[in-house]
Amino acid sequence: MDTPQTRESPSPAWPTLNLVERGALREVLIHGPLPRAEIARRLGVSRANLTRVTRNLLEHGLIVEGATEQRAWTGRPSELFEIAPTARHFFGVKLTGDTIFATVTDLGAHEIATAEEPIVSRASDDVAAQIGGIFTAFTERFDDIVAGGVCVAGDLTQNRKVIVDSPFLGWKDVPLARMLTERLSIPIATENDVRALTATEHWFGAGAGCSSLGLITVGAGIGLGFVIDDRLVTGAHGRAGRLDHLEIDASGPVCANGHRGCASMYLTNEAIARGIDGPEIDYPGAVELARAGHPGAIRAFRKAAEALGKVIATLANSIDPEKIILTGDGLAVWELASADVRAAIDKTLIPSSAPLDLDVQPFQFDEWARAAAVLGIRTVLRF
Known about the structure:
The protein is of the alpha/beta class. The protein has 3 domains: 19-86, Arc Repressor Mutant, subunit A, CATH 1.10.10.10; 87-200 and 367-380, ATPase, nucleotide binding domain (Nucleotidyltransferase, domain 5), CATH 3.30.420; 208-360, ATPase, nucleotide binding domain (Nucleotidyltransferase, domain 5), CATH 3.30.420. It contains 11 helices and 16 strands. The chain has helices at 19-31, 36-43, 47-59, 124-139, 176-184, 193-204, 269-274, 283-291, 295-319, 332-348, 367-380; strands at 34-35, 63-70, 77-83, 89-95, 99-106, 111-118, 145-152, 155-156, 163-166, 171-174, 188-192, 213-218, 222-228, 231-232, 323-327, 358-360. The chain has a 5-stranded mixed beta sheet with strand order 6-5-4-7-11. Strands 14-13-12-15-16 form a 5-stranded mixed beta sheet, with helices on both faces. Strands 1-3-2 form a 3-stranded antiparallel beta sheet. Strand 8 and strand 9 (163-166) form a beta hairpin. Helix 2 packs across helix 3 and helix 4 (124-139) packs parallel to helix 5. The chain is globular, with a radius of gyration of 23 Å.
């Protein structure tokens, strides 16, 4: 095992903030520029207390005074506080089975720099060393990276410190957060990739301002994440959000886990391509066939749409979220068969349910690495 790298000039430390200071910073992060009175109202603190809080955040360079807002009820202008995004930077890594995708973001979760490398060796020590090399290269440009995160497909312990099982990497019980924290000399968090993306949408994306939120990703797999009462749900064993084996068709094919006709046999990219009769094709080929009107491809996407609608409605029935976000690299199922998705939702959703707010978001793969950097932001704010 390589000797952990230490940095001769540590980046500016993240300041010690109290609960109210962290809360004020979070409100401005999520909701954008806010006047002092509104921040105080949201946090339930006095204006005097909030003045001390904002003064401290200003001194640490985490917020700045922006424009002024006219207060209609007094006629006096009110200064708006906003994030000083370049005050600190954050490091994010998405690991697939063969590639490291890395990014640096500012405090507002805007990507500043990216890197991509093939994984040389899947041994956890070797991957940690390779991540360390990427991080060192970034620090030549950014000397104020204060925290970071790594997200993977797989299961983690409830405290998210140990990767229990990551099938694409072949890992079991890898304490990657500790390994990288020691190597990089900054706090590094680890998380399931879909939960990391859910947290990012909750703070910086389509779910900002929602106290409850569901997120579904479709693509190589079926991922689910959700937020309840402003908290990301992990579950007692770190495995919350497993609806990929929800039964869709009791007479359908059996998956590798022995479940007959489950969602994973219809909705993943591989399952859609496999469900088209004829010569073996990949998922992009299946999409092309469906767009060209191939009957077998259209049937495969309609079956996938049925599975997706049942998963969406089951999530809605289970947690009654304000919004459900649908994203991922398998969104062609929505493009090609959205009517079938909605029909399956209507068939499965409890009749007395409130209207479902379904937000379909376009997806780019670098969102995973950005979501990992947001883990670092949430870590310093202790969320």
